[in-house]
What does this fold into?
Amino acid sequence: MLKKGGRFRFNPFRRFSPWKLFRRWWEGKEWIFVGLIGLLALVLGFHGYSMALRGTQGDHSVYSAIYWTLQLFTGQEGFTPPHYSWELQSARFMALFVLFYAAVRTIAAVLRQQFENIKIYWSRNHVIICGLGQEGLILTSRFREDGWRVVVIDMDENNGWHTQCRDMGALVLVGNATDRRILEKARVDRAEYVISVCGDDGANCQVAMCARKFLPERRKRPLTCVAHIKNQDMHNLLKEQEIMMSNDDNFRLEFFNVYQNAVRALLVDHPVWNDDNPFPHILIAGWGGLIDSFLVQVAQRRHAESLFSVEGGVGENIEGERLRFTVVDSAASEKVELLYCRYPQLVNYCDVLPCDMDFGSAEFQRGEFLDNIGRISGISKAYVFIDDDSLAVSVTLQIVNNLKNIPVVVCLNKEDGMEMLLSNADRTVNSLKNLKAFGILNNSCTIELLLDNTHGLLARSIHEEYVREQTAKGDTPQTNSSLLPWNDLPEQLKESNRQQADDLGRKLETVNCGISPVHDWNAGIFEFTEDEIQLLAQLEHNRWVKERKKEGWRYSSSPKDLKRKTNPCLVPWEQLPSEEQAKDLNTVRNMPRFLAHAGFEIYRL
It folds into this structure.
């Protein structure tokens, strides 16, 4: 794919060339090979000098032979024998080879780093990835395949994945990403995205805060900084502050969690319910890292559906019509009780029934408990959430063997061949046709999920609400080019919606309100006063005018012209036609409704 601006073309198949395959093999064994040559040179040199000293006069000790042998590795000879034996001749050239190879490798490493520094210095609109663990490697690969220029910052100079990143075409900078000098070298002031996936949550937050300090006052587009937060409770807490912290025109802060992103992808690929079975019975094996996010997100989606099941109002759950989950784990009862303590709203949307059982017990192996559960209420689907991949696969095969014709999804942590093997098992083994493997890292570290977190979800909701309003008025994609699905929307219009989402926190503060993920699922829809609606609509129009002018648009009384970048609405609020004012007023009036549908709530400070 050609990068925006057309500066280079990336071919993902180049990494599999014979030369690169040989280089990978050689780099893993080169110093073993060179070390053996050096050792052989020492042995042959000592033997050769010892033989030569026997035919000379004078007192020459064994230490002299050792000293002159070592001098061969400096390119000099301290003693010239009358006759060079084949051992000594071989040692001379072997020592010279080791010296020459080490010098070339040292010079090449220095020049390569300097050359990379030059390319990094001239980078623009690039992606900076801080930390080269599994997440960093996957993200580097994804961005490179999508045509982005990538700069990787990693403090471990012995990390073997540096070579793999360079083979992809990424630039590698060795250093601490929290060091302002390293961020300056990476040209964070010109970057499009900074993604911190270091092993420490504090370091990731520090990278985000340091990156913000380097931004110039005038940027056409804000820098999006994404910080990985491993601790899910901390991630939920930071999300409440995320929107309020990103009201800077030049900076957009996002937090992401691998498990929560993985669940979002899981529910798209393997949904819990469908139109034919809206209230299924789900079997869950294990209590791994995904299960909390899984149950909460499922309940939130059910809440979002029920919220507007009655047109124009809040729908109510019908007694008895709830999702049903049976969780099998050695300490299921205790963990379910703790789950309801942490998320009391779950009880309104799903029943989580514990089944205390050890996976290594004979009772589980016989599978009789599955028949008992099935007789009470037929199982529609099974998910396996066990952090140990080997145990997860074993448990999955046992469930598949006992539950015929029931879809079973196993979630795997490590990105090895197991996921690929199980994903393709239905093509070769008929008994495994209902088995699906889901790689947590592989599915959570995607560009779409990474850049479509809080602000992306808000932007999508804003766009979908706009599409609903304009479609209800009779507009079509032919008459209004903006009435497209989010995924088909041009990047410029997506960014415009993101900037509108960025400004939500600042606008709400002016009317003494805030925004956060939904806490009270039983609360009604928030309502603004008419004065607040009028003020927020004016603020949004002023923000939009500022954004358009920053993008090079100008006022013209003629109809909107995309090519000339002219628009008749680039006027103060008081001069805006009433029909255009009505659009902004309706957007503000409907804001609490579409935000609630996206999982956010507005509250009074």
The two ends are 47 Å apart (CA to CA). Residues 1-15, 310-320 have pLDDT under 50 and may be disordered. The chain is about 50% helix and 15% strand.
